[in-house]
């Protein structure tokens, strides 16, 4: 096992970096740092019984040292100008079907990929929808409430 431990550290390092690249939440970067130190120790001939504590200690220290900073940075997210599209009525250009991964809308002259906020809904092309949230590069939408007739408005008063 001693001679193959470098493979374990390399796999853990690459897996942590790949996971981090998908999440962008600084979730697994600490494991990558610990694996990198253990890999370097392995390259210099350190025994496995030393590599494992090095991995644990470096991971823990980097987590403790940087986590408060990361939390502060995540709270300071500035809203983008894309927020101006929220709460608006949009027209469905391509059927919105979450299972198929399809859907496109036009809101204020801009075309967005769209997904239904309610998983079970399929929203046909040509329908009006209300934009409610941006997730990544997708606009989450829902069907707008039905219009209220003048008689119903008077009944409410």
Number of strands: 6
Mean pLDDT: 82
Return the structural class.
alpha+beta
Percent strand equals 15-25%
- Count up the helices: 4
Shape: elongated
Elements, N to C (H/E): HHHEEEEEEH
| Sheet with the most strands, sense and barrel status | 5 strands, mixed, barrel
Oligomer: single chain
Tag the structure with descriptive keywords.
5-stranded mixed beta barrel; alpha+beta; 157 residues
Sum this structure up briefly:
The protein has helices spanning 5-23, 29-43, 48-75, 150-156; strands spanning 89-97, 102-107, 110-116, 122-123, 128-135, 138-142.
Would you kindly provide a written description of the structure presented here, covering whatever features stand out?
The protein is of the alpha+beta class. It has four helices and six strands. It has helices at residues 5-23, 29-43, 48-75, 150-156; strands spanning 89-97, 102-107, 110-116, 122-123, 128-135, 138-142. It has a five-stranded mixed barrel with strand order 1-2-3-6-5. Helix 1 (5-23) runs antiparallel to helix 2 and helix 2 (29-43) packs antiparallel against helix 3. The radius of gyration is 25 Å and the shape is elongated. 18% of the residues are buried. The model has no long low-confidence stretch (mean pLDDT 82).
